[in-house]
TrEMBL record:
Localization annotation: Cytoplasm; Nucleus
Name of the molecule in the record: Importin N-terminal domain-containing protein
Occurrences of domain Importin N-terminal (ranges): 29-71
GO MF, one example: nuclear export signal receptor activity
Keywords from the UniProt entry: Cytoplasm, Nucleus, Protein transport, Transport
Coiled coil location: none
Taxonomic lineage from the root: Eukaryota, Viridiplantae, Streptophyta, Embryophyta, Tracheophyta
Any Pfam family hit: CAS_CSE1
Species this protein is from: Anisodus tanguticus
Family the entry assigns: Belongs to the XPO2/CSE1 family.
Length: 907
């Protein structure tokens, strides 16, 4: 019977009905309770009801009586009684039940004196349950007061019971006539004492335990080193009892090592030796897993083939990515690393000898002893240390090149790609890890062999082969120059790509993220001929069509779309005529994504479509216009994850098909999208991207009728919820408008909405926000536009305002970004629908080149001083005064320095 809401309702109704004055409901309730009492955990469920304060008092009293009667009928089930006491104690102990612990101590004393360890262990189970809260609750004054009470009343009795049991165990073992059942009870008693020890020491080291540390530690070490054949050699049950005690000891000494290392230091070497010796024996048996892992966890503070064949993705995640700390191999190596921090020379010598011995055993009989070679490789790989600030690793255990040549190369050159898969995986991992240290000529000679291993039937092996190739292509010399180039992989490129796509046809590798990542990396590095491009786009669209049926692996899917994007980019850079071929292959797949509502892929599909539109030369082929119509529908913009990709696609259409905008009301639809995006702080930057693209690509005669609506939308946002991000984007938009359509049209269109609003906007928002602009193109655009504003607004703006604009321009151009930019937290969009909502994922390889609207201006600083110099020459003396009165001293000096640099003057 589980304790849940339904159980609580059932029991409450039954106990209420037992109080009924009517005989029929009372008899039905008693029958129901009698039947329920036969179910497991009935007593605990009733006890939970008694302890639940929200239950009516008379129901709880009835339940308490039932619980008492139930306990009388269950016999000597002391664990149930102990659990019951623990549940009660959680609410009442110790403050509301001060007599409990003294009574337990007295009973424990008399029971152990009478050698009744069956009953004594029941008491210890109860105390252990009561004290567990000290391990898991946060440290508070109330908890520490409870802990002090328990220490005052039980620290000394605990040690006495522990030492008394030590004596009994020693006598029993020394006599040679020990009874297994009796010894089992003694050992279990010591395990419980150790668990109570752990609870009482968890928060901090109590003074009593510090004073008696020797007495505890001497016995702890004994239990790690002494063997008890009468239990250990007679079956797994006896062994499990002893190992339970040893595991509890390891947890205790691990706790002391973690919390009181200085005090524990004098015991450390003895315990390390004891645990190490224990590990050598216990790690060979899978049934002793808990002891093995617990022992190693202690050592790291200072299953054999695992998941290799059962779940290759999980095996790789743990093995390759270093997240297998709960496996013996990894945690054993972490142990060696931890010890090596203090005893590097000794560890290096011992492990190097072990590696040599393992390789020697392998050479005697390679087929039978392959595991020894696997062990040697694993030791080198797992104990290698990563150098700070890079991907390079180092090891003192072996000479990397010699070890590679003697141990790794024979495995890589093996003609049978399916033989000894764990060895092959280890060799590939070694190659991957030490890729930076291996000379290029050595690696290049073996790359075709690595390509062969893509055909291995082992998922781990062909995954490691793909990862090895992918990581090799990331190696850089001098920090910048790729070591392996297109020329290096061209001789076997077609075979490589064929093997990669073939590997994804193998069972369980249909969505292998390591293979797809390798495909992406190879396509990003190789020279892609028409033949290779054709084969790859066919392979990728086949995969895309398949995963569209049931998208499962987001990492694989991302690399899939990145692979498509990089193939389009690299192939079309070399041969623009391939665009139509790509469109023919991809369009049906992308249309299927949209038609079948594969929402996870919408952002990817829109980014790929944008990439294809941008690669086309105007006029855009007619089949794209169907996508354009879908793009303009309000329904397409409802999901926030789609917005950045939709904006990107819309921008592509605006640039490539501007002549289509003024037809069939499309421009109104585009500006409606802008209006929706600009109204929310989470999407206003996307709205500005749309607006800026419209302003940049359409003539003023086309956009003029819409400018009033645009300004109203922007002014509404200024009044209702402006942010630093919005103000910077507003300055960028106004700057773009100014340089594209002139100051006159900017001023007239703004003031048509509200009289003299232009000057207000300049003074209150343009001037203070200008210095916050970031991004090289944006900085150039806004500084040049602001310079034009100074030069062309003498009749619009007074000298003080123009002086403040100049001060902001100099700040923008001459001061480091960190001195002038304000940090602003992101504004969450609380209007989002609660529930599943995939986030937008940017495809790196679809990235467009940033458009520069002022290609004719090379240097904005030179443009500023040249413009000011010409302006000042027309009215000498005016601008030096403007500068003195309005620019900060630092900016005056900076402007003077600029004039000197360009050999210009402001008179």
């Amino acid at each position: 019977m589980e304790w849940n809401h339904e159980t609580a309702q059932f029991l409450s109704q039954c106990f209420l009905n037992t109080l009924s004055p009517l005989p029929e409901p009372r008899r039905q309730a008693e029958t129901a309770l009698s039947e329920a009492s036969e179910r497991s955990n009935y007593g605990l469920a009733v006890l939970h009801l008694v302890a639940e304060p929200s239950i009516d008092e008379q129901i709880r009293q009835s339940a308490a009586v039932n619980f008492k009667n139930h306990l009388k009928s269950v016999g000597p089930h002391r664990h149930l009684l102990s659990e019951a006491l623990a549940v009660i104690g959680k609410h009442d102990f110790p403050k509301a039940w001060e007599s409990l612990l003294p009574e337990l101590v007295a009973n424990l004393h008399s029971l152990t004196q009478a050698n009744d360890y069956v009953s004594a262990n029941g008491v210890l189970v109860t105390i252990n349950s009561l004290f567990k809260k000290f391990r898991y609750q946060f440290k508070t004054n109330e908890l520490l007061l409870d802990l002090k009470y328990c220490l005052d009343n039980f620290a000394k009795p605990l040690l006495e019971v522990f030492k008394r049991t030590v004596s009994l165990i020693d006598q029993a073992v020394a006599s040679g006539a020990v009874n297994a059942a009796t010894l089992k009870m003694y050992v279990e008693s010591q395990r419980l004492c150790c668990r109570i020890f752990y609870s009482l020491n968890f928060q901090e080291l109590p003074e009593f335990f510090e004073d008696h540390m020797d007495e505890w530690m001497i016995e702890f070490k004994k239990y790690l080193t002494v063997k008890y054949p009468v239990l250990e050699d007679t079956g797994n049950d006896g062994l499990a009892v002893v190992d339970g005690l040893r595991a509890a000891v390891c947890e205790n000494i691990g706790l002391y090592m973690e919390k009181e290392e200085e005090l524990f230091q004098k015991y450390l070497s003895g315990f390390v030796e004891a645990v190490w010796s224990l590990l050598v024996v216990s790690s060979a048996s899978s049934c002793r897993e808990r002891l093995t892992v617990t022992a190693i966890k202690f050592l790291t503070t200072g299953r054999g083939r695992e998941l290799f064949e059962m779940n290759f993705i999980e095996f790789i995640r743990r093995d390759m990515e270093g997240s297998d700390l709960d496996t013996r191999r990894r945690i054993a190596c972490e142990l060696l690393k931890g010890i090596g921090m203090h005893y590097k020379d000794k560890v290096t010598a011992k492990v190097s000898l072990q590696i040599k011995n393992c390789l020697g055993l392998f050479s005697q009989n390679p087929d039978a002893n392959w595991k020894y070679k696997d062990c040697a490789i694993y030791l080198v790989v797992s104990l290698a240390t990563k150098k700070a600030g890079g991907n390079s690793v180092s090891t003192d255990l072996v000479d990397v090149e010699n070890f590679f040549g003697a141990v790794i190369v024979p495995e890589l050159q093996s003609r049978d790609v399916n033989a000894f898969p764990m060895l092959k995986a280890g060799a590939l991992k070694f190659f991957t890890m030490f890729r930076n240290q291996l000379p290029k000529v050595v690696a290049m000679a073996l790359l075709p062999d690595v390509v062969r291993f893509l055909a291995s039937e082992s998922n781990v092996v062909h995954s490691y082969a793909a990862s090895c190739i992918e990581k090799l292509l990331l190696v850089k010399d001098d920090g910048t120059r790729a070591r392996y180039t297109a020329t290096d992989i061209s001789p076997f490129l077609l075979v490589l790509m064929t093997n990669l796509f073939s590997a994804m046809e193998k069972p369980e590798s249909e969505e292998n993220q390591y293979i797809m990542k390798c495909i992406m990396r190879v396509l990003g590095a190789a020279e892609i001929s028409r033949d290779v491009a054709s084969a790859c786009i066919t392979g990728l669209t086949n995969v895309l069509n398949r995963v569209c049926q049931n998208p499962k692996n987001p990492i694989f899917n991302h690399y899939l779309f990145e692979s498509v994007a990089v193939l389009i980019r690299r192939a079309c850079e070399r041969d623009p005529t391939l665009i139509s071929a790509f469109e023919g292959s991809l369009f049906p797949s992308l249309q299927m994504v949209l038609a079948n509502d594969v929402s996870e892929f919408f952002p990817y599909a829109f980014q790929l479509l944008a990439q294809l539109v941008e690669l086309n030369r105007p006029p855009v082929p007619q089949h794209y216009m169907q996508i354009f119509e879908i793009l303009l529908l309000p329904e397409s913009w409802k999901k926030s994850a789609n917005v950045p990709a939709l904006v990107r696609l819309l921008q592509a259409f605006l640039r490539k098909a501007p002549h289509e905008l003024n037809q069939q009301g499309r421009l109104s639809n585009v500006l409606g999208i802008f209006n929706t995006l600009i109204s929310s702080p989470s999407t206003d930057d996307q709205g500005f991207y749309v607006l800026n693209t419209v302003i940049e690509n359409l003539g003023y005669d086309v956009i003029s009728p819409f400018m009033g609506h645009i300004w109203v939308s922007l002014f509404n946002r200024l009044q209702q919820g402006r942010t630093v991000k919005f103000l910077k984007n507003l300055v960028i938009f106004m700057s773009l408008f100014l340089v594209k359509h002139g100051l006159h049209n900017l001023v007239v269109s703004m003031n048509a909405v509200q009289k003299d609003v232009f000057q207000t906007i300049v003074e209150q928002f343009w001037v203070p926000s200008l210095k916050l602009i970031t991004g090289s193109v944006e900085l150039k655009l806004t500084s040049v536009a602001s310079t034009k504003l100074i030069c062309e607004s003498s009749t619009l703006l007074d000298s003080k305002v123009r002086g403040k604009i100049l001060d902001s321009i100099v700040t923008l151009l001459c001061r480091p970004e960190e001195e002038r930019v304000l940090e602003e937290p992101e504004v969450p969009d609380f209007g989002e629908t609660v529930g599943y909502n995939a986030t937008f994922v940017h495809l790196y390889n679809t990235g467009k080149k940033e458009e520069d609207p002022l290609k004719e201006v090379n240097d904005p600083k030179q443009y500023l001083v040249a413009s000011l110099s010409n302006l000042a020459a027309a009215s000498p003396g005016t601008y030096p005064q403007l500068i003195r009165e309005n620019l900060e001293a630092a900016n005056q000096a900076a402007l003077l320095q600029l004039c000197s640099s360009y050999n210009l003057s402001i008179v």
